[in-house]
Amino acid sequence: MERVSVLCLSLLLCSLSGAEIIEEREISPESVNVPQPGPSDLHAVLREMSAKLAENRLMIQQLQTLNQEQAAKLKQLEKQSSHMDSQQQVGQVAFSASLLASGSGHTGPFNTHTTLVFRGVVSNIGNAYNPHTGIFTAPVRGAYHFEFYFVAYGGSHSSAVGLVKNGEHIFIAGQHQTNGWGTSANGVTLLLEAGDVVFLRLWQGYVIYDDESHHSTFSGHLLFPCETLLLMFN
């Protein structure tokens, strides 16, 4: 009976030992098949990361270039806007004046061509016309329109008035009759540079008349500054 008990106990111990060995084999790292990355896999990952980094750098460079281009365009637009604002302010140019501010009478005749000074200023927007010299000075490059009218009483002297640009004769208006009142007029549109001058000149040996009714007048205004058009097409 004791032998049987000992045999049973031995079998039980052997069974437990075998179970522990099986359990240890099941959880040992050698029994688990886990793939490990090799050198080729690491190189592939590095190459992919390098490619992504290069793409990001290229994208950043493109964005920087685009930003610089947009900043340059914005600066140019601001410059054009500022220049156009200044042109608009300077572009408000117009004047009208009569030969006499008060009184009446003939002016002339003179022994030489004489600049007429129109002293009866009605308007002088931009102050481009000088009522002390009779000379209009263009403040900006642009197209300007001028008109002049005058009256003279018939007699031994006729009337002749010419429009002059920078000393160059442009247009003339004149009239002659033996008695009664005579009138004449003319006008012109000129392209002027900034600083160009325009004035009226009484021809040698001729006369011009004016009184409180202001028959003899000189007027001009800026149609448009040419710099504004150039900026719109640049």
Fold and architecture overview:
A hairpin with a 4-residue loop joins strand 5 (129-130) and strand 6 (135-137). 19% of the residues are buried. With 234 residues, the chain is of the alpha+beta class. The protein contains three helices and 13 strands. Helices cover 37% and strands 33% of the residues. Helix 2 packs antiparallel against helix 3. The strands form three sheets. Strands 3, 5, 6, 8, 9 and 11 form a six-stranded antiparallel sheet that branches. Strands 4-1-13-7-10 form a five-stranded antiparallel sheet. Keywords: Coiled coil, Secreted, Signal. Residues 1-19 form the signal peptide. Residues 60-87 form a coiled coil.
Please provide a brief summary of the model.
The chain is α+β, with helices and mostly antiparallel strands and 234 residues long.
Number of H- or I-type helical stretches: 3
Please provide the count of β strands: 13
Radius of gyration: 50 Å
Which residues form runs of ≥5 with pLDDT under 50? 19-24, 229-234
- Percent strand: 25-35%
**Form type:** rod-shaped
Overall SS class: alpha+beta
Give structural attributes.
13 strands; alpha+beta; 37% helix; rod-shaped; five-stranded antiparallel sheet; Tumour_necrosis_fac-like_dom; 234 residues; six-stranded antiparallel sheet
